[in-house]
Amino acid sequence: MQFLVPGYLEQAMVSFARNQDQMRDTLRATFGIFPFGQFEQMGKQNMALFEQALKMLSPYGAAAGAEKPDAAPKPAPPEPEDPRMQRLESQLDAMRQQLDALTKKG
Predict the structure, then answer these.
(1) Is there a contact between 47 and 92 (Cβ–Cβ < 8 Å)?
(2) Which residues touch 17 (CB under 8 Å, ≥6 apart)?
(3) DSSP 8-state symbol, 3
């Protein structure tokens, strides 16, 4: 069942968007304008939220999100710091201080 739900939801979203476009075109052709502009904006926001939720819940969402360049990459979780790295960082700081002292003298 888990492998069917993401595909079903994606197809439902595509179908919904297609129907929305057809309805907008029909109303525009009938009235000359689209009388529901405010609802259209809310619908776009709702669709964006729904897509974000689908990406978070779907194992296939990561592949779909890779296609869009506007998606911000998630920062990597901080790893526990290795004592050797701490030692190296302290040595680098000491070397920086020595270099600063040498440049101030010269």
Answers:
(1) no
(2) 47
(3) T
